[in-house]
Amino acid sequence: MGAFMKLLLLAVCAIWVLPGLAMAGITRHYKFNIVMQNVTRLCQTKSIVTVNGQFPGPRIVAREGDRLLIKVVNKVKHNVTLHWHGVRQLRSGWADGPAYITQCPIQTGQSYVYNFSITGQRGTLFWHAHISWLRATLYGPIVILPKKHVPYPFPQPFKEIPIVFGEWWKADTEKIISQALQSGGTPNISDAFTINGLPGPSYNCSAKDTFKLKVKPGKTYLLRMVNAALNDELFFSIANHSLTVVETDAVYVKPIKTNVVLITPGQTTNVLLKAKSKVPTAIFAIAARPYATGPATFDNTTTIGILEYEQPSSSKIKNRKFPLLKPVLPRFNDTKFSMKFSSKIRSLASAKFPANVPKKVNRRFFFTVGLGLSQCLKNQTCQGPNNTRLAASINNVSFVQPNIALLQAHFFKKSKGVYTTDFPTNPPFKFNYTGTPPKNLLVNSGTKVVVLPFKTNVELVMQDTSIFGAESHPLHLHGFNFFVVGQGIGNFNPKKDRAKFNLVDPAERNTVGVPSGGWVAIRFLADNPGVWFMHCHLEVHTSWGLKMAWIVKDGKRPRQKLPPPPSDLPKC
Ligand code: C2O
Question: What pTM value is reported for the model?
Answer without folding.
Answer: 0.95
